[in-house]
Amino acid sequence: MARGSLAVHLWISVYTLLLLSCHCFYLPGVAPEDFQKGELLSVKVNKLTSTKTLLPYSYYSLPYCRPQHIVDSAENLGEVLRGDRIENSPFVFKMREPEMCKIVCRLTLNAKSAKEFKEKIIDEYRVNMILDNLPLVFPIERPEQEKSIVYQHGFHVGLKGQYAGSKEEKHFIHNHLSFTVKYHKDIQTDTSRIVGFEVKPFSVKHEYEGEWNDNIRLTTCDPHAKRLVTNSDSPQEVGDKKEVIFTYDIEFEVSDVKWASRWDSYLLMADDQIHWFSVVNSLMIVLFLSGMVAMIMLRTLYRDISKYNQLETQEEAQEETGWKLVHGDVFRPPTNSDLLCVYVGTGVQFFGMILVTMIFAVLGFLSPSNRGGLMTVMLLLWVFMGLFAGYSSARLYKMFKGTEWKKITLKTAFMFPAIVFAIFFVLNALIWGQKSSGALPFGTMFALVFLWFGISVPLVFVGSYMGFKKPAIEDPVKTNKIPRQIPEQAWYMNPAFSILIGGILPFGAVFIELFFILTSIWLHQFYYIFGFLFLVFIILIVTCAEITIVLCYFQLCSEDYLWWWRSYLTSGSSALYLFLYAVFYFFTKLEITKPVSGMLYFGYMLIVSYAFFVLTGTVGFYACFWFTRLIYSSVKID
């Protein structure tokens, strides 16, 4: 099978990534292809998907009509991780040559095949197909909006219903497909480029006269008699010993849409006002926090420092010198400093990966036509960003007077990936148990382990070696030998309370966009508004930094110098709200009933929340680290 040689695809992915960063060129499968009239078109089938089970299956896991030889298309790493299984199909299209009532095959269902079809119909599985790298879509008109069409991925395997006058629920299969291929014609060369691939599925109990043969004419669908399928009034029932005849129509339609714009209608967001509302809402939070940070900076750096010995009242003196009183302890290494170094290094790795991915996406490199490209690039960037993870964790470790840099390097290289890999391995075992195509083959598992041990770990060591060779970061003030006693804190300065409060605003800045991302992932809808996403990402970073600085200042003013871990956890706690929102989304938007599917959802969302915690925590930590060094280096401590 082509899937076995995944190492080759892995190196192709690495090479593609390197080319992406150097040259501007068409990716394989993205260059326009011109078709002559009558030229054979390659229609491919992809996985069966369902929003009720989240478990993808290969198209030929159902007893559909098959070509003489099933050929797997070469899949990249991202496609395999997504569960894509792209194979050839028995459908024969010829450019600009319409077909009516073309018979694909005739099947007689047995009890087993009927049961398989019924299960997929109950779970609302959709069939996905591809033509010239465009996914098959089912257009749905929105009656409340003029000329507004929403495109859904693929078409349902079938539907449930009752016959007139009967209460017994039956299962009907979509056995007639009415395809529409939209093309843009070049008048000079008479060639065409495909710009759309749509379908309308029907369930029809086909009938014919006499014995079945290869050249038989159907009475229910006959182009010679101009009898076409336009409805599902006489549907094809699924059951044991039921005869099913699969047919299709193919219509070609000229379109004004140019090849370069063919994805625009797929990716059109009808509710872009919500995204603008999200950005404005987030910007208001940022402006509020920026005002608070500006006031603090003015008080501490200008007013307080310049009028160091000219404080107006005793009350003001107590407030403004609170943070100065702990100058001898504020840079004392925290408890579990090794773990903090590891998490900060991992957070830097994540930040670098997401930032570069976002830039690629905004510039249009990660086109939706390059299936699996986003996931492949993210995975490879994560591996290469191990260099920065090792460097940042080693620098911090040396500042804490650490000496065993190899130990901290190993922890940085293994802690976060090992936890994620363990969860992922359990989830993959569950998918294997369901015989889903979403289960990773052994070759892919080997490729992931190779990326981790063969590239990521050595790069973490290189970065760590470079970071540890650098001179240690010097503290702006000296640390006392004896720790200062922390006075009793007010209830609102309790660590747990302030940490939980700190996570609300960063989550509030992103939760509207989060809804669209979750909908894209779990409800299989198109998402390609990376411009909005990049803007929201910048707002998230600024919000995490500012809320941590504000709460860190209040903490130091109350003479509590244990800010290291609290700064990380303050912004990192937004991940808790993200996971709680994921729980809310599960019960309000998804219709998942199977325990395995629920475990998959919460397992993947746990990984996402953990990654979000590491990212936001690191941003908060570095903001607070910069802030404390700035204010303590700006005043003369007697």
Automatic annotation (TrEMBL):
Keyword RNA-binding annotated: no
Membrane topology qualifier: Multi-pass membrane protein
The keyword Transmembrane helix is annotated on this UniProt entry: yes
Cleavable signal peptide: 1-32
GO cellular component: endosome membrane; Golgi membrane
Compartments where found: Endosome membrane; Golgi apparatus membrane
A biological process term (GO) from this entry: protein localization to membrane
Broad class of the protein's primary localization: membrane
Keywords, in A-Z order: Endosome, Golgi apparatus, Membrane, Signal, Transmembrane, Transmembrane helix
Listed transmembrane segments: 274-298, 340-366, 372-391, 412-433, 445-468, 499-523, 529-556, 568-587, 599-627
Family: Belongs to the nonaspanin (TM9SF) (TC 9.A.2) family.
Name of the featured protein: Transmembrane 9 superfamily member
